[in-house]
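This section describes the prediction task in plain terms. A model, or a person checking by hand, is given the sequence of a single protein chain and must write out its three-dimensional structure as a string of tokens. No templates, partner chains or ligands are provided. The sample shown here is typical of the held-out split.
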Amino acid sequence: MFLLFPVCAFAQTGWGGVFSFLNNNASARMAAMGGNMLAIDDNDLSIALINPSLINSEMNNTVVLNYTDFYTDIKSGFAAYSHTFDKAGSFAFGMQFVNYGNFIATNENGDQLGSFGAGEYAASLGWGRRLDSTFSIGANLKFAYSSFDVYNSYGIVTDVAALYHSPGGTHISLLVRNIGRELKSYESGYERSVPIEIQLGISRKLEHLPLRYNILLHDLQRWNLRYDDPSKSNTDPLTGETVKQDRFINILDEGVRHVILGFELMPIKRFVVRFGYNPQLRKELKLDTRASTVGFSWGFGIRIKKISIDFARSTWHLNGSPNYFTLSANLSDFLK
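The expected answer:
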């Protein structure tokens, strides 16, 4: 008998569905800027895998590889390739995986029965099209497979997105993720949903400073993202009466949890420094005794000749921080 929770899931908010690993295929650039969707339209295939409205013909023949070193022996990553066809449009083909390592299997008495592995995988096909100089649209079709010992599940998920390019250089993107269903459940009669998420992002590169910002509003399909910790008492230790919380403070706290901030500083050509802040991650995973830098992230990107290299660290816990590595290049540059 065993119990296993995917490390990538935000369990505190009650995911309640399958294939949560699809929400965590962050590249180093996304991880450094808060760990979620970006509305930055600069022909980066690594972020177009999350936001398909960014897929365009400028990415033709681009390849990207990503590897993430999580805690203990948990590893994840993805690979993608983009190609533009004259009549069909621009496409992005991707493969994603999470390997949770090996575990000891026991019975209800604690007797060891052997070992087993656990992992989740997804294959995706993305399509994007620019309608005109102002609007772009895109969609992803994903086939997801999850395996924990002898239990496995698979299903189909779709993402749809739209992007607005303002004449002043501001990008606004709307993304609806995880429209789909489980085709086969881990156990018959226990089908679980794939919760839909709505996100809205805005980004802009400042005109007189080498700085770009990205503001993301996530989980717009529901307002309350707060987690009620049963271990924390809301009663007065002296009177025993329930402590009433300020309504305005609660509303402000709930609103802040929907926001993720990301920044890119470009001091010199071919080099960029990135920072991010995820309030929800900080509020849910920090320790009251020592908050540290939980919820903050940072990274950098550098282009060496024809290859772009990105690195990021995102603090999830005092125990350590995952490391993200991303390599990308346009194969056409090597054929010139």
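For orientation: The chain is about 10% helix and 45% strand.
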